[in-house]
Each structure stands twice: as C-alpha cells, then as structure tokens.
Amino acid sequence: MLSIAIRILSAILLIWLFRRLLGMFLGSARANRPKDQTGASSNHMVKDPVCGMYMDARLAVRLKTNGEDFYFCSEDCKNKYLSQSAGSAGNSASG
Q1: What CA–CA distance (Å, rounded) separates 95 from 83?
Q2: Residue 11: other Cβ atoms inside 10 A
Q3: Which residue from 22, 19, 79, 20 is spatially nearest to 48, judged by alpha carbons?
Q4: What sign has the CA pseudo-torsion 88, 91, 93, 95?
Q5: Separation between Cα atoms, residue 78 and residue 58, nearest integer Å
Q6: Do the Cβ atoms of 77 and 50 come closer than 8 Å?
Q7: Which of 81, 28, 21 is nearest to 51 (CA)?
Q8: Over residues 69-90, mean pLDDT
C-alpha cells in the first residue's frame, strides 16, 4: 500500500514539475516574441472594405485616415480603396 502511495505522489510531483518547467519555457518564448505593431489583440479579426476578406489585424495592411483605421488584405486593396475614395471625393466636389 505504501509503495502505491509513493508512486502516486511521485507521478504527481513529476507532472507538477513538468508543467512548471513547460510554463517557464513558454513564458520566456512569449516574452521574446516581437511586439504587435498594430496594437491589435491576437484574435482581432478585421474585414477588408474592398474585397470583404477577413484577416487577423496583426497581418493586415493598415491605413489611418481622419483618425479612423482601415485594414486591407494587400497593398493592392489599399490602393484600390485610396483611388475609390479619391474618385468619390472628386465627384462630390464637382456635383
């Protein structure tokens, strides 16, 4: 009976040590990860206003206009958005 108790306690101790070491390793890996440049959280999904594609905000091409953030899947979509907004601004000025 005593040997079973010792084995159970040993197993619990080994599991606890393994989890603690794993946590320390993962914690240092997280600390060394590059900072998020957009300030977005890791699960923050955004929608491209041009093509409608959803993507992680950290990976998106960002445009800040008039204090508002826009996110795009590519530079092409960003450029299309800029040309469309310039065209609509020109139409409203002439109309």
Answers
A1: 18
A2: 10
A3: 79
A4: negative
A5: 16
A6: yes
A7: 81
A8: 88
DSSP string, the chain: -HHHHHHHHHHHHHHHHHHHHHHHHHHHHHHTSPPPSS---TT-EEE-TTT--EEETTTSEEEEETTEEEEESSHHHHHHHHHHHHHHHHHHHH-
Let me know how long the chain is.
95
- Would the pTM of this model clear 0.70, i.e. be above it? no
Cα separations in angstroms, 4 against 1, 14, 31, 86: 5, 15, 40, 77
As given in the structure block, the two tokens for residue 95 are 């109309």
pLDDT exceeds 90 at position 80: yes
Measure the CA–CA gap between 84 and 17, rounded to whole angstroms. 59
- pLDDT at position 8: 94
Cβ contact 78:72 at 8 Å: yes
